[in-house]
Every structure is written in structure tokens, then in C-alpha cells.
Write a structure and sequence with these properties.
The complex is a heterodimer of chains A (about 110) and B (about 110). With about 110 residues, chain A is mostly beta strands. Chain A has one domain: Sandwich (Immunoglobulin-like), CATH 2.60.40.10. Chain A contains no helices and 11 strands. In chain A, the strands form 2 sheets. In chain A, strands 2, 4, 5, 6, 9, 10 and 11 form a 7-stranded mixed sheet that branches. In chain A, strands 1-3-8-7 form a 4-stranded antiparallel sheet, with no helix packed on it. The radius of gyration of chain A is 13 Å and the shape is globular. Chain B has about 110 residues and is mainly β. Chain B has one domain: Immunoglobulins (Immunoglobulin-like). Chain B has no helices and 9 strands. In chain B, the strands form 2 sheets. Chain B has a 5-stranded mixed sheet with strand order 1-9-8-3-4, with no helix packed on it. Chain B is globular and about 40 Å long. The chains are: A mainly beta (about 110), B mainly beta (about 110). At the A-B interface, strand 5, strand 9 and strand 10 of A face strand 3, strand 4 and strand 8 of B.
């Protein structure tokens, strides 16, 4: 089945140690998104790619970076994780950026920072 | 920038119809209204989307009045497995730098036996 896959599902990292989360999709969608969701809160958009065009949200900390080497894969890099970065990280895709296009979410990666 | 307001939580019983209303007073002309369902430790899942009037699919209906300043998600005959958080999302074109995707706080729906 076509889907959005996130690896790993659970990631533990140490304070200040760089970590990379990965997302892949078999939907061939143009847009890929990264969200951060903290406990009992709504998902918060960090950035998105429209094809190779990177779009950062204004309030996304510089500590968060992203790469999209090809249509299928997208990575979230956290350069120096702090305790406040512990959260669920959700990857999503959509065919286009127009609001009529629904987003397909992956299962998420739960990040723990020790 | 269309901000959404939903009830924080709702309780209902199995077999009942549940209606969750979302307010979006400053919805823009090109904004669509989309509802997502999220279970614990899972990503949100698309339920239904509409632009105006009424939309129905196999799991829900979406009612949108003419002024589009609110919308109501209707879940017919809910079961225990419908216990989840429901998000109303209003968005348009991300190409416009003033446009954003912002999930509201969501409604925690608890279905009782």
C-alpha cells in the first residue's frame, strides 16, 4: 500500500547530540511537511518542501534543519537537541500546497532527549 | 490567517450522532475546511473536507453554512473506536507567505459505552 513511512518510530538521543529523523513516501506527492507535536498539543508545522523548494516557518528554531534529496525522502535534522525538543515528530505529504489537498501523515517518531 | 476554535472536549455514548462545531470567523475566499482524526501515538488521519454547503462520505458529514464562518463535523452512530482528538483545519495556498497551516487545539471526543 502507498504510504508515508517514518523511521525510527522511537528515538532516544542525548542533550546536544545531533539526531536525524527520516521520512519516505510512496505516494509520489510534491509536498512534504514536518510537524512537531508535544504532549496534549496540536501539531505545529516546522517547514515544508514543495518539490525542492524549502519553506521554513518564521518561528521554527535554527536548530531544526531539513533535507529532501529526492521526491521520496525527507529528513529532519536537529543539530543540538535540548530537553524542550522532546516530542512526536510527524511527517506528512500532499499532492499540492493548495488547501484542497489533504495531507497524509506518517505514524510519527517519538523523540526522547536525555 | 484563519484561526479556528473548537470545544476542548466532548462526551457521547455509543450509537449516538456526534456533532463537533468549529468556528473560523476570518476564513478567506480560497480556504478549504478539513477535518482530521488523531488517535494516541499515531499521526492524524484525514476524515473529510469541504468548501461550502454539505459534504458526505462513508464516515462523516460536513456542514458548512453560507457565510462559511463555521463548520460542523457530524459522526453518525459513534462507537468506542471513535474516541480520538478531532482537528478542524482551515487553509489555502501555502505559496502565499501570509498563509499558514495551523492546527487548532482540537476536540477530545470520548465515547462511553
Amino acid at each position: 500500500d502507498a504510504m508515508v513511512i517514518q523511521n525510527p518510530r522511537y528515538q532516544v538521543t542525548q542533550f546536544g547530540k545531533p539526531v536525524t529523523l527520516s521520512c519516505s513516501q510512496t505516494l509520489n506527492h510534491n509536498v512534504m511537511y514536518w510537524y512537531q507535536q508535544k504532549s496534549s498539543q496540536a501539531p505545529k508545522l516546522l517547514f515544508h518542501y514543495y518539490d525542492k523548494d524549502f519553506n521554513n516557518e518564521a518561528d521554527t528554531p535554527d536548530n531544526f534543519q531539513s533535507r529532501r534529496p529526492n521526491t521520496s525522502f525527507c529528513f529532519l535534522d536537529i543539530r543540538s537537541p535540548g530537553l524542550g525538543d522532546a516530542a512526536m515528530y510527524l511527517c506528512a505529504t500532499s499532492r499540492g500546497r493548495d488547501g484542497e489537498y489533504e495531507q497524509y501523515f506518517g505514524p510519527g517518531t517519538r523523540l526522547t532527549v536525555t | 490567517l484563519a484561526k479556528t476554535t473548537q470545544p476542548i472536549s466532548m462526551d457521547s455514548y455509543e450509537g449516538q450522532e456526534v456533532n463537533i462545531t468549529c468556528s473560523h470567523n476570518n476564513i478567506a475566499t480560497n480556504d478549504y475546511i478539513t477535518w482530521y482524526q488523531q488517535f494516541p501515538s499515531q499521526g492524524p488521519r484525514f476524515i473529510i473536507q469541504g468548501y461550502k454547503t454539505k459534504v458526505t462520505n462513508e464516515v462523516a458529514s460536513l456542514f458548512i453554512p453560507a457565510d462559511r464562518k463555521s463548520s460542523t463535523l457530524s459522526l453518525p452512530r459513534v462507537s468506542l473506536s471513535d474516541t480520538a482528538v478531532y482537528y478542524c483545519l482551515v487553509g489555502g495556498l501555502l505559496m502565499n507567505r501570509d498563509d499558514k497551516i495551523i492546527f487548532g487545539k482540537g476536540t477530545r471526543l470520548h465515547i462511553l459505552p
